[in-house]
Prior knowledge:
By secondary structure, this protein is mainly alpha-helical. Helices cover 58% and strands 5% of the residues. The radius of gyration is 40 Å and the shape is elongated.
Amino acid sequence: MPETKNAVLLAHSLVPAGPVANPAAADRLHDTLTEAAAADGWSDALTAAWPALAPVAGASPYLAGLMRRRPAHLRRLLEGDPAESLARILGEADALDGEPDDVRAPLRVLKADLHLLTALADLGGVWDLDQVTEALSKFADAACRAALRAVAAEQRARGRLISPPDDSRGPVPGLFGVAMGKHGANELNYSSDIDISLFFEPRLTTLALAEGVEMQDFANRVGKGVATLLSERTADGYVFRVDLRLRPDPSSTPPVVAAPMALAYYESVGQNWERAAFIKARPVLGDLRAAGRFLKALVPFVWRRSLDYAAVLDIQAIKRQIHVHKTGEGLAAAGANLKLGRGGIREIEFYAQTQQLILAGRDPALRTPRTIEALYALADAGHIPRTVADELSAAYVELRGLEHRVQMLDDEQTHRLPEDAERRAAVAALAGGSDLSAFDAHVEALLARVNARYGELFEGGEDLDSSYGSLVFTGVENDPETLETLKRMGFSEAASVADTIRAWHHGRIPATRTERGRELFTRLAPRLLEAVARSGAPDDAFRRFAVFFSGLTAGVQVQALFLNQPKLFEMVLGVMAFAPRLARTLGRQPAALDGVLDARFLTDLSDDTGLTEQILREAGETEDFEGAMNAVRRLHREQMFRIGIHALTGRAGTEAAGRAYAALADAAMRTLSPAALAETVRLGGAFPGAVAVVALGKAGSREMTAGSDLDLMTLYEAPPEATSTLKDWTADVFYARFTQRLIAALSAHTAEGGLYEVDMRLRPTGSKGPVSVRLSAFDAYYAKEAETWEFMVLTRARVVWASAPAFGERVGAAIEAALRRPRPGVDVAADVRRMRGLMDRERRPHGFWDLKLSPGGQVDAEFAAQFRQLQAAAIGEPLTLSTLEALHDDPILAEAWRVQQRLAHLLAAAFEGRVDPEAEPSVFQLRLAEAAGAPDFETLKTELTDLRLRARKAFERAVPAGRDGDSEMSRSIS
């Protein structure tokens, strides 16, 4: 090609990039090119250029392949002025016409020419970074325009598009594409994909379509057609990988979004990282007037004139998520991620963009899409020192150059320096280095300088980085460094966790649907993941938190609480890791966490917090019986969660937790008993009597766990011939109806959940007799018919509520009188031993962790305690409901009961039903061991085995064996 005036031929402008890393590869290419040049008469150009081509051939298989396969194209580039060659390539791309099949191959050939030109001009020192990235970006623009023309021509040929090809509004009126990221800023890297956001103006596009053509479907076809034409690989290669995901909420929106919908999205749920993305946005194809209007409408979103403190924190959080981490990884040259790693390109870009988001709303001079220009604009405005702008700009140029050289090896979209020393030496050679060790040291020092500058940004603010590594959830795809961090945290499905977090950032759940909710979540996310990682069971903890968090109807108050009370937040997450019962409560009823908002949540369980009065008050404010049931369930749910948290975290001991569970049950019964009585009166009329509710079992002794049911009986007194005023119900019918309503109130599941399973079988005559018992019948039964086991049950009987206080006192006195009444001829010890023997035979323990039925388990201790109470009653000594107090003379049994009750509290609070702790996370096993005073789980099992053996022997000593034989027991006494 003849030399044009003032043109400088590329062949004479190139300088060697560095040493020849692989002389054999270079020699092979030289032989091929020498033969071609001799045949076609361009040997002089090859000779002049070869010293610069040899390092390229010795390092880059990709570029060597382009030169070997297309020597004529290489000749044309070498014998031309590089600027003119670029103009020719762009011109030919803009001149492409026809349908996709007509432009597919020519576009790929032009891309290969463009790639070879930019590589040689870059490596040969002819173009600087700006010229290289601008050339790549301009060709991407031309390729996008050509692709849209071709797809539009195809749609026009099929009769779907009726606008003329030369319409001033573009190939498809109203449809336009915005270049994002580095493409939008004219900073495209060598093997980058291109981020294009496609939109359409419905009012314009609909006029360009044939009748019956559905507009959204048409737009989607065009968008996918453009992406496919550019990105599909053929024998000629590909043009660009196209990413259409930088659009509003890409997982739930079509590939081409209606502009009004997009604007509504950004105005309502747009995130700060999306504002940052639009800093670089630029109209690139289609209806450029519509694109201009769209970007103008977005100015208030991108460049906010005023930011509240929360918004500033959210922007700062974008930066802090990729702050310095202390894993010792990331600063070694081998494998270093030049873009996303510590000290990489992204840190420089975020350094500029985060400050632009905060400051440029009021200062338009800062609104530049290009990174280096932004740094100097910030320096000119006095926001950063000029020395910092100089240092970061120089580092940016060098890092981008290294990034290009890494990608030039094989035309891969990678940002990592190879770990393989030979391949890294090839990168070093293209960067002018002959000593790999020196190259590595230089890169590491460069990364360290950038990382140090980056760490100074927002110094002293809220710490949102992670000791595990980067946690970045901006953008539309998972960040590789973040996935590595999540794996270090112990997540087995890191990508799934990242997807979930990004979905929450997009406002897809109520908790993050508001701008304030998303800003809070940006700050909460790293704390969430850190706390979940520390829980010891991150997969389970995160899964259970996700169910809870997704179920919140609003999230601002809860997220603010977690941020302001990090210890509480960590406590809740830690419990979620190994307490599916509590996690399930929150998942099904997120409102259970409302109790956390109560200042009393962390109050000691032994303190009077006014719970009963609150439940009575809120239930009394409802309109009917069902309303009272729901009011009780709401408060009960919150308090069960609170007590469970205290028990699981060790804030409350065994006795305090048992009393708290019992106090909660008492509050429920004291609220619902009068409500049930009022409902009975409403249905049947007033009745002249009195009734009392008596708690038995662990409810009676105030030793309940989270899994305890309610053992109850109701006793009443009424005139013999009395009937109710409306329906003439007799006393037995009236109080049976009352008891049935009370059982329903306590056990039925409503929209607010359930309370307790209720068992009435421990009443006199059990399930065969009346559901409510007249007091005189109770007295007669215990005087003449009751067996020893029924007196044992009575040792834990307690009046919880009575319709008349005086009647409640009479019932309490009747219970004590029954216990103290002499029973001549009855061998109580022998009865107790026979009953325990029968349980050993007929109710075998369900494995080692059956704390109740195992020999030496809780039943042994409780039988002994009840036996001691019957002994005390017989000789007139004071009585107690407490198992431990009753065992004051039996220290081994007391210790066995106390240890196993502690374990029972943890297991009941954490799980529903039977559980095998052997299969649970080690962190929960350790919590069990700590509760029992053991250093580890294996020691716990050993010590528990020994303690049970001693407890069984102590039981046998405390309750002497009597005569042989069994007595019938049809009902459980435990």
